[in-house]
Amino acid sequence: MRLKTVLTAGVAALVATSGAAFAEKWDMPLAYAASNYHSENAAAFAQCVTDSGNDLEVVTHPGGSLFKGGEIKRAVQTGQAPIGERLLSAHANEDPLFGVDSVPFVATSFDASEKLWAAAQDKMKAALDEQNLVYVYAVPWPPQGLYFKKPIESVADMKGIKFRAYNAATSRIAELAGMVPVQIEAAELSQALATGVAESFISSGSTGYDRKVWEHLTHFYDVQAWLPRNTVFVNKDAYNGLNEAAQEAIMDCGDKAAADGLAKAKELTDFYIKGLAEGGMETLPPSDGLKAELQAFGETMAAEWLEAAGDDGKAVMDAFAK
Ligand code: PCA
């Protein structure tokens, strides 16, 4: 063979082995920043499925670039996207069970949060199934703390503050505290703080760190109120359209992503809070008085959740308490 022919053949072989020729490509919308561990973990999950030899390529689209957080679940239900990741608790209005991870002070550590999720697992899968969704995996955020731009000693200091909420539970806290809730996706949080649309919020150190909120805020109270989750699900029709080996690859890669994501969340929790401090924020525990007031909100909200979630909710909480 002449040199040029050899080179051409080489390039052709390279193109063939590097693929591009997948029978199916799945776009996977994510709401959070590409650099966030949830998004990195989802990208690793996508690669795992892609590398499984099942002729299915999964490609993530972080930062709400394909669908914004609030649109992702519906997009997957209706098949506009075959797979996606969403903070399910933001859909507790559809089914209270979706908010099981956001009842204040029920599960406040990684271990408790895993136990609660395990207790809810079967009912969660069934609730998603009813909405044409197949559960794949979920990963917790670090414990939730309160962000403000002044010191807060008690709930009385919160009166009238504009509070960014990300689900019904966070809105309810604002309401109980006499604050003004405003629903905003994490992707728009920096902008909302910069323009004064919001001046406080509750979230993990992770989201405060990602959004560099020290540019606008001064105090982080490490309340450890709950650990909400991002959940990955697949459109049921898309899932049923795959052969068994591909379905298995999705579930196996999902199990791995659940374990890896949990490990990352644990590993990064302190790093994020240190990052807030390095950015110039005061990071501190809530005063005993504030803690007691927040606990009381938690009791109110736990009762409200049980009322809304009925027998299923009670069964989950009973299993969790065992
Ligand atoms: N970050 C997400 C949800 C919980 C969290 O820690 C957010 O603030 O949108």
Descriptive overview:
The structure is a single chain. This protein is α/β, with parallel strands linked by helices and 322 residues long. It folds into two domains: 2-85 and 96-140 and 230-268, 3-Layer(aba) Sandwich (D-Maltodextrin-Binding Protein, domain 2); 145-225 and 274-321, Bacterial extracellular solute-binding protein, family 7 (D-Maltodextrin-Binding Protein, domain 2). 48% of the residues lie in helices and 17% in strands. The protein has ten helices and eleven strands. The chain has helices at 3-17, 37-50, 69-77, 110-130, 168-176, 189-195, 205-210, 236-240, 244-278, 288-321; strands at 24-29, 56-61, 83-87, 133-140, 145-148, 162-165, 180-183, 200-203, 219-221, 229-235, 282-284. The chain has a six-stranded mixed beta sheet with strand order 7-6-8-5-9-11, with helices on both faces. The protein has a three-stranded antiparallel beta sheet with strand order 3-10-4. Strand 6 (162-165), helix 5 (168-176) and strand 7 form a beta-alpha-beta unit. Helix 2 packs antiparallel against helix 9 (244-278) and helix 4 crosses helix 10 (288-321). The longest helix has 35 residues, at 244-278. The termini are far apart. Mean pLDDT is 95; it is low at 1-17. The site of pyroglutamic acid has 9 residues, from helix 7.
